[in-house]
Structures are given as structure tokens and as C-alpha cells.
Amino acid sequence: MSYKQDFNVFVGATSGAFKGIKITDKGNIIKNIQSLSSITENHEVTAMAWGDDDEKEILMGCGVKGVRSVKVYDTEYSAFTSSFVCSTGEGKINGISRYSGAILTAVKSGEVKLWKFNKKEQLLINAGANLHRMRHSHINKNIIATGGEENELKLFDLERQSRIFLEKNVRHDSLELRVPISISDIGFLPNSSNVVTTSKYGFIRLYDPDAQRRPVINLTIKDEALTTLAIAPKEHHIVVGSGKGRMNLIDLRKPGKILNTYKDFVGSITSLACSAVQPYIISTGLDRHLRIHHLETKKLLKKVYLTSKINCMVLRSDFTMKDDDENDKIKAKESISTSLNGSNRDGNTDDNEEFDDSEAEYDALFDKMDVIAHDKNDAYLAKEKRKLPTKQAIIVDDSSDSEKAEKRPKLIKHKTSTKFKKEYNSRTIK
After folding, report:
1. Is the separation of the CB atoms in 43 and 35 below 8 Å?
2. Which GO terms describe its cellular component (predicted)?
3. How far apart are CA 394 and CA 391, in angstroms?
4. What pLDDT, in 10s, does the model give residues 61-89?
5. Quick check: 323 and 26 in contact, CB under 8 A?
6. pTM of structure
7. What is the rounded average pLDDT of the residues 167-190?
8. Cα torsion for 262, 263, 267, 268, to the nearest 10°?
9. Residue 192 has what DSSP assignment?
10. Rounded CA gap, 86 and 32, in Å?
């Protein structure tokens, strides 16, 4: 079995539990990957991320107080491959990623460190106190973004080890009061340099570092403390979640719109993720449930109880709820249809050539099939149609000869006897 066919969702809990989940239409499989007996108070999972583009490796940041640690889990071999103590800075790990073969961590006190065996090659950046989130760009691996409580959005170039962008706060409100900054999550939009942030004050802001320092789009969801965001498969769309259990689809095209509202939440939403191949939104929260909503119809497709309060989650990009057998059948049908059709994207191939190609592929397909041979003496081949024998009913009569005679019908003579004629004539004369 391929490692991608094992678990398609991994979650980390406040209790320190690390679970693998396999979700399909037919049922769900939930497994505690880390032994519960080895979990202590310092094992709370605070950050999770994929360690490579093939999604084989999961990076985990654990611990809130005291000793904080980093663990690496290999999904292909189903085992933890390495772990080390994060001794830099203070507070929990709020961001983790891999860069240049090493692990990059960001802690609440603002230290962003690249961990390497050679201490001289280790990188240390101070991103400011009260750091709540650090995200790594998937397009430009040299760029990271940080932000937090009264900690503005910053972009750093890891190769040059310098800051390349610092946001400028929006103008004062209608009462000429300063608008507070409290960044709760950060996301990089695909195929662009734009960065989107959410705030605990309900702000959703889109930044274009190449254009200006202030946000180009500024939306507000009133009375909601936004906690997390995810990039939707639709272009220029994101999904946001709040501490009250509200989840919305946001259109970031000017002037910006708040679209679908998804329901059935109880409590804070802690993590969001979207499938790249299906219109699914996967969410986790402090109510111990994992939910799957349809992006367009807003319908709740799945609700799974996980027994633990979930802090963070990683989702496979090709997540789907179809079984592996169904996926294999669909892929086989697609491959057969494409091979039989004989694609001609340039439009210069004649119809006869396409017909010859498909006919040759049919011949090759039938040549590979096993021939079922029959013996000439097989009974079912030599058998001819014949009339089936019919059974005649036999009636047995037990009556005597006299009774049989009475039952026999009397014969009527058509010719009148001479004796009868004489008697008749004598009667008529009298």
C-alpha cells in the first residue's frame, strides 16, 4: 500500500495526542500514532506542517511551558525519525517548516531559528515579541511571513537574512483612534506575491508587497475573533474561521466580499484546510470534532468525533473521500479513454490515421487476452436439439364387465329393421 493511501488527515491535540485519520464515504479509521502512556503536560502539539512537497514528512512543534521539542514523523515508514529540544527563546512554537535541509522554528518571544548541526551555519532572526504565526511561502522558498499581537506583518528573506517588507497600519478610525494590530494567521496566495492575514479583531487584509505597505483590501467581520484561515481551491478565495465557531468563504477580488457561511460548529475553530482536487473544506476545533463541508453547497458531508481538543492539522493535497478501489477504477477508465481516443492536440491528424491507431490498439488489447479453448468432443457442443419424450396418462378402471357395459354409449342404427316396420304398420292400420 502506498503511504498516501494510508492516512489522509493528521491532527495534533492539546493533550499531546497525535492521530492519523483515514476518511472515506464508507467509514472512518482513527489511530493514535503516538503512545498515550508517553504523553505528558509538555507534549501539547502547537504547530504542524509538511516537511516536503511529496507529503512524506510531518514536522511537529510540541510543548508550551518548560521543555519544548520538535519531532519529525515519516508517513512512509510510519515512525518518528528524529526529535530535538527547542531551547531558543520563550513560549510555545507558533510556526515550523523546512528550509535548505534544516528545520525552521518560530517561538512566541520572536526568535526564528534555522536548526543545523553546525552551529556556525545556524540562522537566527528576531521577528518581534508576541509572535503568533510564522508561515513559509510555497512559491519562493526563501520568503517567510511573521506577525502577532501588536506585531506587524513582516516578510523575511532567509537567503539574505534580512527583512524585505513591513506593513503599515491602516488609518485611524472615524473617532481618530488607532486601529489595533493582532494577527492570528497568515497565508500566501498561489501564483502571486500577495499575502493575506486574519485578525482577532475580525479584520481580513490582503497585502501586495510590490505595490504598497498598507493593505489593498480590508474587510471586517463584526464581533468575530478570527483564529485561522486556509487558501481555497478557487482563485482569489480563502476560508476563515473564528473563535465563536463561524466559518466563511471570502472573495478577495476588489472590493472584497464575504460569501458562504458554513454552520454546525460549537466552539472555536482552530485549524482549516482545503483539498486541491475536491471542493472540500476540512475544519477542526476545541469541540473535539472534525468536519467536512462542501465548498459550494455549504452542506456538511462528514462529522467525526476525535475524543481530544484539536490544535492543528495537516491535510494531503489530493484528499478525497472516495475509496482507493474507486480511484483506481476511475484512473484506469481515464487512461483507457485517453489511449483509445488518440489525442491530437495540434489538429493535423487525419480521421483515417486516428481510426488506424485505435484499431491497432484494439488488436493489441485482444492479443493479450487469454483464449478459452474447448474440446471438440465436449457434450454441450455435440448436443443437438431433440424432442423431449412426452408421458401418456394411463387410466385404470376397476369396475366389472356389467358396469362397463352400462357405461358404454348405445349405438343408434340409422337403418330401420323389417320387424320394426311391420309393428309400426299394424299399429297405424288399427
Report:
1. no
2. nucleolus; preribosome, large subunit precursor
3. 9
4. 998 877 899 999 999 999 999 999 998 88
5. yes
6. 0.74
7. 94
8. 0
9. S
10. 24
